[in-house]
């Protein structure tokens, strides 16, 4: 299994171009099923979750491939409406295909993605949204069976602004008769990007990015669409955290600072100097950093849960103690024991972490067990003195296209061990 060998403790300096957003491209890949035509996706990141989505599209009968750096999908000949469990196991967010398969085929069978290291991750809100649009849905032996003769526009009030459930509702509503209003919708930038794609298909989508989204369904769609995916705000946050941990400076290109305000606020409160100019973001960390005060994760525009692990690792290099509260997932501090092995002062109590910045971290052999936990280990390793080896790279590559190359571009001493 591949490992990253990182020799930390040296200041960073470099430039890095940020990839397209994983959590934007995945729902768009699913939605590309509905037009029965061609979708070209530019700026898509080369991630294992993207490859898994392409495999699911092929299994459903689509043509789905990379072409000159873009993703090319032709869903004209798609015929199948079942995602086999062999594929849903590869990608927990396969439930993201539910609305699209229902919209296209009026019937769908997918395996419930099940819990993972972050927590139970039920899909009840997704199913509630599908039923609100006329689908009959039931779960049996770990599979979800759904059918819907004619989706009818309607009112959906989400009990929680679930990102995936909002996306599933938007996609199924795109092919519903009439107008759908989604209340308490997720407001993440990735929702806005999906709305832009659906509008390119000819769907009327209004209010994406607010808590109330309106979708006017259609019975036919534009057959040839291209879309450029927005930058990955969590990837950008992760590499900013690396500079905070190691000190130094960097310029990130192809970012959207407006999508990262809550994260940038924390880095500034830590004492990092940040300058945004168009789609570039520069960071300089000179001298010691300080605790930013409490950090609480929340749905957008709050502090994003996905940035919590890498930022917590950076907090180990800030003077003082920081209390971090995770409100989105019930088990998102599973990486803490690995940080403690490196000498990190991180105490967990339920969904709260208390992070002390007084101890010097040292290189260690550590293991990534989930995507953003692995990102936290990368941040800690570049700041720690000495050599670290991070195993479980397959988890990290679900969300970071080229972690070795990115860290090298920032001036870190990194080696990919096969
Ligand atoms: C999306 O997951 C992201 N994944 C996650 O990123 C991200 O952490 C999450 O949104 C929150 O921002 C993708 O976009 C592919 P949710 P999703 O539905 O849609 C509960 C990463 O690291 N919930 O907003 O699954 C759920 O258990 C990944 O890139 C229900 O109770 O997140 C969780 O506690 C990790 N019932 C909370 O809501 C449901 O039906 C937020 O989940 C759905 C969700």
What does the model show?
The chain has 14 helices and 26 strands. With 418 residues, it is α/β, with parallel strands linked by helices. A four-stranded mixed β-sheet has the order 24-25-1-26. Strands 2-15-17-16 form a four-stranded mixed β-sheet. It starts with a strand and ends with a strand. The chain has helices spanning 22-31, 48-59, 85-88, 98-105, 124-132, 163-173, 189-200, 233-246, 261-270, 308-315, 336-341, 371-383, 393-396, 403-409; strands at residues 3-8, 12-17, 38-42, 63-67, 70-74, 82-83, 107-111, 136-140, 143-147, 155-157, 179-183, 204-206, 212-216, 224-228, 248-253, 273-277, 280-285, 289-290, 295-296, 318-319, 321-325, 345-349, 352-356, 365-367, 386-391, 413-417. The chain is elongated, with a radius of gyration of 21 Å. It folds into two domains: 3-19 and 231-417, UDP-n-acetylglucosamine1-carboxyvinyl-transferase, Chain, CATH 3.65.10.10; 22-228, Alpha-beta prism (UDP-n-acetylglucosamine1-carboxyvinyl-transferase, Chain), CATH 3.65.10.10. Helices cover 31% and strands 28% of the residues. The structure holds ligand EPZ. Ligand EPZ binds at residues 22-23, 26, 93, 119-126, 160, 162-165, 305-306, 328-329, 371-372, 399.
Number of helices: 14
**Helical percent range?**
25-40%
Compute the number of strand runs.
Answer: 26
Strand content: 25-35%
**CATH class division of the largest domain:** Alpha Beta
Q: Do you know the CATH topology of the largest domain?
A: UDP-n-acetylglucosamine1-carboxyvinyl-transferase, Chain
The CATH superfamily of the largest domain bears the name Enolpyruvate transferase domain
Strand ordering within the main sheet: 24-25-1-26
- Could you describe the largest sheet, including whether it forms a barrel? 4 strands, mixed
The Rg value, from CA coordinates, equals 21 Å
């Amino acid at each position: 299994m591949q490992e990253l060998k990182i020799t930390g403790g040296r200041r960073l300096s470099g430039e890095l171009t940020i990839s397209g957003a994983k959590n934007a491209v995945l729902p768009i890949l699913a939605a590309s099923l509905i037009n029965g035509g061609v979708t070209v996706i530019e700026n898509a990141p080369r991630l294992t979750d993207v490859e898994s989505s392409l495999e699911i599209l092929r299994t459903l009968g689509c043509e789905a491939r990379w072409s000159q750096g873009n993703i090319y999908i032709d869903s004209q000949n798609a015929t199948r409406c079942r995602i086999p469990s062999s594929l849903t196991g590869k990608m927990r967010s396969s439930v993201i295909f539910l609305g699209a398969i229902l919209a296209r085929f009026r019937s769908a069978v997918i395996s419930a993605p099940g819990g993972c290291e972050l927590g139970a991750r039920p899909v009840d809100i997704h199913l509630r949204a599908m039923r609100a649009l006329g689908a009959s849905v039931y779960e049996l032996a770990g599979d979800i069976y759904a059918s819907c003769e004619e989706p009818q526009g309607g009112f959906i009030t989400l009990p929680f602004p679930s990102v995936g459930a909002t996306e599933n509702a938007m996609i199924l509503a795109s092919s519903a008769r009439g107008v759908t209003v989604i209340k308490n919708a997720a407001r993440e930038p990735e929702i806005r990007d999906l709305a832009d794609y659906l509008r390119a298909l000819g769907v009327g989508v209004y209010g994406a990015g607010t808590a109330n989204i309106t979708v006017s369904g259609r019975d036919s769609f534009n057959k040839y669409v291209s879309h450029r995916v927005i930058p990955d705000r969590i990837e950008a946050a992760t590499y900013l955290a690396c500079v905070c941990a190691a000190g130094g400076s960097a310029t990130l290109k192809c970012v959207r600072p407006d999508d990262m305000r809550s994260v940038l606020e924390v880095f500034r409160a830590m004492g990092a100097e940040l300058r945004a100019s168009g789609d570039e973001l520069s960071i300089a960390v000179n001298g010691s950093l300080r605790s930013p005060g409490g950090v609480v994760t929340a749905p957008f525009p709050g502090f994003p849960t996905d940035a919590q692990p890498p930022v917590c690792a950076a907090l180990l290099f800030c003077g003082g103690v920081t209390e971090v509260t995770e409100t989105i997932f019930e088990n998102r501090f599973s990486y803490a024991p690995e940080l403690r092995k490196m000498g990190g002062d991180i105490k967990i109590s339920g969904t709260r972490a208390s992070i002390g910045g007084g101890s010097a971290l040292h290189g260690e052999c550590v293991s990534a067990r989930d995507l953003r936990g692995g990102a936290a280990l990368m941040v800690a390793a570049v700041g720690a003195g000495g050599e670290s080896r991070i195993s479980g790279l397959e988890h990290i590559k679900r969300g970071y296209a080229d972690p070795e190359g990115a860290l090298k571009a920032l001036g870190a001493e990194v080696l990919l061990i096969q």
